[in-house]
Design a protein that fits this description.
The protein has one domain. About 90% of the residues lie in helices and about 0% in strands. It has three helices and no strands.
């Protein structure tokens, strides 16, 4: 019985660690997205947070496409 309890406690701590690690990663990703959108479009943080994730990703894809086009233009001369 003690071994089962010990296994349950370990599993609970592992699951909690995983949850908070995922939360920390998601928060860092959101901060990076907000930074890039704010720097490019000069939007406020609350305005960016009101966008859906799909919409934020669509704008980030547009930024990346523009940067790729600029980079290709420099190689073409």
């Amino acid at each position: 019985m003690l071994l089962r309890l010990r296994a349950r406690v370990r599993r609970a701590f592992r699951d909690r660690w995983f949850f908070f690690a995922e939360l920390k990663t998601a928060a860092a990703r959101l901060r990076a997205e907000v930074h890039r959108l704010a720097a490019t479009y000069h939007w406020s943080e609350p305005d960016i947070h009101r966008l859906s994730r799909a919409r934020r990703l669509a704008y980030l894809a547009l930024i990346e496409a523009d940067e790729d086009a600029d980079l290709l233009a420099t190689f073409r001369g």
